[in-house]
Amino acid sequence: MKKTIIPIGPYHPLQEEPEFFMLTVEGETVVDVDVQLGYNHRGIEKLSELKTFDQATFVIERICGICSTSHPFAYTQAVEDIGGVEVPMRAKYIRTIIAEGERIHSHMLWLGLAGHFLGYNTVYMWVWKLREEILDVMEIISGNRNNYAMFKPGGVRRDINPEDIPLVMKKIDKIVPTLKMLYKAVRDDPVIHARTKKIGILTKEESINFSALGPTSRASGVARDVRKDTEYGAYLEMDWDMIVTHNGDVFDKVVVRILEMLESIKIIKYCLLHLPDGEIDVKIKNIPPGEGIGTHEAPRGETFHYVRSDGSNSPVRHKVRAPTFMNLPTYKATIKGEKIADASIILAAIDPCYCCTERMSIRNTKGERLFDGKELIRLSQAKTQKVKQKLGVKESSLEKLVQGKL
Amino acid sequence: MKLPKIRELIEAIKALIVGPYTTKFPKKPHTPYKSFRGQPLFNEEYCVGCLACEQVCPAEAIDHKDIKTGKTAKRIIYHYTDTCIFCGECEAACIAEHKGIKLSNEWDLAFFDRSKAFETIERELVLCEICGSIIAAKKHILWIVEKIGELSFSNPTLYQTRLKELGLIDDNLVASIKDNARDDRIKILCAHCRRQTTLTTKNSRTGG
User: Fold this and answer.
1) Complex prediction ipTM
2) pLDDT band at A93, cuts 50/70/90?
3) A379 or A221: whose pLDDT is higher?
4) Which residues contact A300 (CB under 8 A, 6 or more apart)?
5) What are phi and psi of A168, to 5 degrees?
6) Range in A211-225, A348-362, B194-208 with the lowest mean pLDDT
7) Do A140 and B33 touch (CB under 8 A)?
């Protein structure tokens, strides 16, 4: 049988990050998925080996625009692991606040995009509007909406100004009611149920076999979270819940992320109210020869850093493993046997990055019909419209008005 | 089915009343939060030209050029706005009470010509009296003198620069002192020449 492949990507002016997906389809059913990675190799590990331990945090921060705290968090812990450095409590609290703020804005970004893929552009607009509040909070605390430059081996670079805390609290409190509303909306909406329930199921066994991480595994019933499992940051100081659901479908992944945001808000509020006094960093005189590892529960799962030192002032080896690397293979379990119209939301469900769904071509087993990412999103949105019609949900004139305004 | 819709309608109406989060930027100027990390700016009053900022800059956005013209020399320190990542390391490492270079709230940094996207500060340099090589910025030496107080009188480079700055040293007067023993030591010297004068008497008029 003759097969034709027309690749779309890995580079295209409309696309944001280079990754390549190829779905093989029979009729409307996806029979196989192929992922190609490595187009975005920037030599970050080598770059970090050319910088000093202190400067490397800024390179590490730029591995990912959204996880700009997760990587430095893990890296600084790896460096502190080599030197046996004890970080002051205040620094731990500030680190926790920044990391949880990042989790909220990352999950919101994902939630908005998931809404967009499903054809709920109102959700997309509302959630991204809400996300601005948390980005403002990050700007108040660290001085920038992204790339916070807060982490350094031995502590943090900037202190939280006590005068800013009331404003931060006010902005965080603003998020809660809208998030709760969104959670209820997701829970009650029959269209979202029809589109996401029992779609892209990752069972507990598969999740363990594929070593899935973060919300992807927690939605499948694997209760694993670095924040609970290891002692770092200020996470063991307070009471919060690990969100675990058991179905492993797209719906559960949405629910896990929304509830995690509420937990993160709880953590941030506790940290701000109980911020201990004291130093924000310790001076590290030298880093002895040796190896260290650092882990952090990033929004997408556990990020892992390994640093080796030879006693000089820069690392001799630095290894980074990001969570998406472990989550991508789960596509092999989740997408097979699903319809093409559901492909974009399943691919997006592990929160790989916006890029992922926009970088693919689809061929059938005869090698004919081809779609690109945009076409897939259109298909997905069209399916939601069909489901709406089937369920008899009509768009009210007010909804149309709101969509027009936004 | 009805109730949830009312809940979302309330949010929709709220969104209608509150309006978009985006500001009317070009019409209304944007004022960032106080803690915003913007363009780092040199401070003419405080900067001592020590280059600590250049050492720590992770993006290598700070650079310098030493220009020698005859018996005087100056150091130009460049800060390139286009490569700067606004991390604030320069401010944290600044020896002049973190005031020599300071992050401002300036965010409007667009340039038409990338090669013009930099700012500079000039510092006078002190040269070695024997070989003419660069010792340090004058302000840097004065800063050290101020820090170590009377201890600076153990080092002729330090106290002579200081006395010259105060106008207490007359070159003719120095010449008469220099006729006495070890005149080679009582000079503004670079590290290499100081070692030479300590170990040998090559440059001394009386020794030899």
Assistant:
1) 0.84
2) very high
3) A221
4) A67, A106, A213, A214, A215, A216, A322, A323, A324, A327, A350, A351, A352
5) -60, -45
6) A348-362
7) yes
Helix (H) or strand (E) holding B118: strand B118-127
State the Cα angle at A386 between A383 and A391, rounded to 5°: 125
Using a CB-CB cut-off of 8 Å, the residues of chain A touching B88 are 143, 149, 157-158
Give the pLDDT confidence score for residue A43 in this predicted structure.
Answer: 79
Model's pTM, two decimal places? 0.86
Query: Given a cut of 70, is residue A103 above it in pLDDT?
Result: yes
DSSP letters for A265-333 = HHHHHHHHHT---S-SB-------SEEEEEEEEETTEEEEEEEEE-SSSS-SEEEEE-HHHHHGGGHHH
**Could A126 and B21 be called an inter-chain contact, meaning their C-beta atoms sit closer than 8 Å?**
no
Under a CB-based contact definition with an 8 Å cutoff, are residues A187 and B20 in contact? Answer: no
Q: Helix, strand, coil % (nearest 5) of chain B?
A: 35, 20, 45
- Degrees (nearest 5) of the Cα angle A32, A34, A38? 170
Q: Which residues of A touch B18 (CB under 8 A)?
A: none
pLDDT value at B9 more than 70: yes
The least confident of B47-61, B128-142, B165-179 is: B165-179
Residue pLDDT, tens place only, A155-179: 999 999 899 999 999 999 989 998 9
Considering only CB atoms, which chain A residues are within 8 Å of B58? Answer: 51, 54-59
Look at the domain B32-127 and name its fold: Alpha-Beta Plaits (3.30.70)
Q: Does the CB of A381 have a partner CB in chain B at under 8 Å?
A: no
Between the CA of residue B193 and those of A159, A274, B128, what are the distances in Å?
Answer: 45, 58, 8
- Asked if A398 and B7 come within 8 Å (Cβ–Cβ), the reply is no
Rounded to a whole number of angstroms, the distance from the CA of B140 to the nearest CA of chain A is 25
Neighbours of B179 (CB within 10 A): 9
The fraction of chain A above a pLDDT of 70, given in percent, is: 84
Q: pLDDT tens, A243-265?
A: 999 988 989 999 999 999 999 99
Domain A42-328: give its CATH superfamily. Answer: Cytochrome-c3 Hydrogenase, chain B (1.10.645.10)
Residues B21, A132: C-beta atoms closer than 8 Å: yes
Chain A residues lying within 8 Å of B85, measured CB to CB: 58, 147, 149
**What is the average per-residue pLDDT within B87-102?**
92
